[in-house]
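Q: What would this complex look like in 3D?
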Amino acid sequence: MLLRLAWRNLWRNRRRTQLTMAGMVFATALLIFTLAMYDGMLWDMIENVTEVMTGHVVIAREGYQDRPELHRTIGGSDEARAEIASEAGVRGVCSRVSAFALLSCGPERDAKTQPGRLTGIDPLSERRFGRLARCVTRGRFLDSASGTEAVLGIDLARSLGAGPGAELVVISQAADGSTVTEVLPVAGILDTGDQLRDGSLVLVGLETMQRMFGLEGRLHTLHVFLDRPLAAREAAAALSRRLSGRGLEVLPWQELQPQLAQVFSIWLGMQVFTMGVFYFGIVLITFSTMSMTFLERLREFGMLRAIGLKPRQLVLLIILEGGLMSSLAGLLGMGAGALLGWGISVAPIDLGWFLPPISWGGTTVIPRIRGVLSPVNVAMPGGVMMLLGAVVALFPAWRLFFLRPVEALREG
Amino acid sequence: MRGALLLLVWLLFAGGPAAEAAGAAVASGSPAIDAAALIRKIETQYQGRSSHGTISMTIRTSQWSRTLVMEAWSEGRDRFLTRILDPRKERGTCTLKVGNDIWNYFPRIDRLVKIPSSLMGDRWMGSHLTNDDLVKENKVDELYELAVERREGTNVTIVGVPRPAAAVVWGKIRYEADLEREVPVRVTYFDEENRLVRTMTFTDLQRIDGRWLPMRFTIRPEEEPDEETVLAYENLTFDLPLEQGLFSIQRLRRAP
Amino acid sequence: MILRLAWRNLWRNPRRTLLQMLAVAGSLFVAVFFNNLAYGSYRQMIREGVKAGSGHVGIYHKRYIEERKVEQWFVVGSAAVALEGLPGVSGVFPRLLLTCLARTSHDGCGAAILGLDVAAEAASHPLLEPRRLVSGTLPAGARQVLVGDRLAAMLRLEPGRKLVVMFQGADGEIRSTLFRVSGIVHSGVKQMDAGMIVADRKELGEAFGAPDAAHELAILLDDPVRGGEVRAAIEAGCGLPASTAAFPWEKAMPQLDGAIRMDRVQFRFMILILAMIVGLGAANTLLMSVVERTREFGLVRALGFGPAAVRALVMAEGVMLGLLGMALGTVLGLLATWHASVHGIDFSSLMGEAELAGMLIDPVIFSGWDHVTTFWFNLGMLAVVAAASLYPAHKALQIGPAQAMRTF
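A: Here is my prediction, written as structure tokens for the whole assembly.
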């Protein structure tokens, strides 16, 4: 009964209720939008580090990460890949073979020569699971794992004076000690945003690489892509257990990129701070508007008491009104915020004209506004708002508990 | 002449300890073994000479082993050329050293590549010699201060300590020579903590043109006891007239 | 008269007024204090960044910033003296940067070797700070160098050991030089620690084959604001080679510039949101107070107050409320700024060793005094409050006097 009364009270003065709620809805929606934006930046950073090259979990021979020597290989059978891919949470696996080589390009007289790192990939699975193919800025990505083309990192291409159509000379040493010499036409140039990587990266087909270096059937690394990148540690532990005893090392990206983990904690700190400021604002608004709403209706409440409403019931009524108002505001706010957040997740706003990409702790911050909605970040602000009303209503309710009908009726 | 081969080996592959010519200080109180004279004698015979021969290089690493057979020419101290004869896959691959520069030619892709400074530390053809070892000038008299450490019968041990400004990575080198036959026996390289880093041994002495020459030269790194590089000489000729322009990059393409 | 009325109206309901004031004060406090903190941190970052990087004004070969080619070196000559003589210049630091192969008897690896005047920069360059020196001493002639700690570990180097460095000389020939490690340094930036060697510029130049060569001439100013003047003076003529040009640090170090701008944009965005929330709250409150006082307004109108006066009354209430809040907030913000400017705030538990835009960030941040922005924030808040009062003021006129009096 009280509930119905509370509800009707709300709508008896439509404008007042709307006004009170407006601020609350706005603040909730804004918070949800901002959290989506922050998460978007965070995901940009994670993806830039992991999904372009490393993947979320990397499997290699023990000791390979410290000293990536040519002979430290792992078996490249399809069964092994299938085994890994069948693990829960795994989206896909990419195989790679790597070697250092001497690279040269251009007419001999003025040829630029420098060391680089050759990486053999399977273009199809890279396209499916990773983001390497999206980094191509000129020309195109590799077509097949057995093709003889190469794709160069942008800074390497600049140092060598190479572009699509140029011929890349590769000189290195195979697994049996013999000299490897190849001339590979350049199919495209890519920009991963990491200058160090782009200054030495050459992509070739996996099978071509295996043939060149005498490593048929062997791989150096398996890059596992997960559905949930943040669960990399658990996934790595599970894979490690499954593959134990084979002399393999299974590492999540957090261990391969410890500096990024630190960037994270800073970023999360900033997020917490922002949320703190927001909630402070929200509480402030809710408190001030609601207090006023109730305290201005003293006469009305006095009358209710005069006709027999018990103090306790009055308090409950207030709390219900507050709760209902904020619940409604919370729901509307969630809706609006989620909509805005979804908007910038499918259509990110590019700020590249204004800011350059910035290196931070091993990753690159991309200048754009992008949103990533997560259930927690939508539900929590909404939920807090919904509860807040009832909580905030306690203060005026407390005051009204001691209300003496006569005084109340006199005011106005 | 034989001095030429000796010096070829010493200068090119051993950082030139042999050539320490003039500056050799004989510190030991025993009857003067003039280290300087010993080496100068060898060196003067080498001045401006040429050589031609076949080298077979066997490399053993923890991962693989292989043998290369190369034809080699040298002229003076500055010029040096090898061309691979075997294995077939790499036949025609050349290494040309002129002064401080090294060039590699790969016939399979018809490409000439100059080795940049960043790769001078790389192993030459996968062996235990680096590109840098190949270009190390035999300015040993400028690079090391030499003293006789010990003498036992016909064997003498000379110690070389790098001069203050010399751009050598070693803390000390020690080489043992056979005085009677005037040939090196073993050269050892130490870091600044006096730890042995690599050993070069000269064996298989043969008498050519009235002189003794070691025809086999082994390099062994201390940290990888299973690994070694062995160079064995065959068919050596000295002081022969060499083709004009043999040691030029244009010439590399036209395989004989 | 209206003002006195407005004032008394405000205090008729002290609680409401105080609450609203608190909201305004709170947001202004946050805005002023954190902006000053951010301002201080930017200044710190710039100060550290220019000392290690391009200086407030950097002289480079015209295309060096994009291409970073070793061949783009120039001779410093008498220009250094001329530059030091310019008004406002507190330091002129030439630097030579080469890529090389660093070798010891055990191993070799690629590195970069930075030649600078150790004696002159010991007091200012971040890499030469005592707390960065892990072991040994600063280079003091005789071809001594500092080596990053990771590089030292890889090559098994310790103070006193030798290092042979090989690079392409000014004439294109490959040269080898012997250096000796005098000390090991830890910068905290991985790339530096794994790949940087610090040597004396003159000695490095000799080894390079061009004794007075430099890639960068970093000019530090007493007052960063005078960068433009100094650049103009340089263009006018300082004896620098024609191949060079003077660049402001924002162009020479675009990453640092971008990082600061990004941070600033984010912060301003947050303050904007906060202002909107507060403004809305103020509008809300004011509107409600107006709506409930319709009878009173009606009375006042009946007594002869014109519409303009009523509007002015409501706006005055709003603005006064705003001003009170702003004053309180700003004063608190400035107090907190003062404390943070003297004692600094230590963020190390949050940040640890953080690297941004290629340089190390000091976790202890000292507040600065950005009075200009504080003023604008206040003005902005005033505008927001005034705007928030518009609608309620308009609303107060809606109801005709007779009708108003009828409301009970």
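A: To summarize the key features: The two ends of chain C are 27 Å apart (CA to CA). Residues 14-52 of chain C form the longest helix (39 residues).
Q: Very helpful, thank you.
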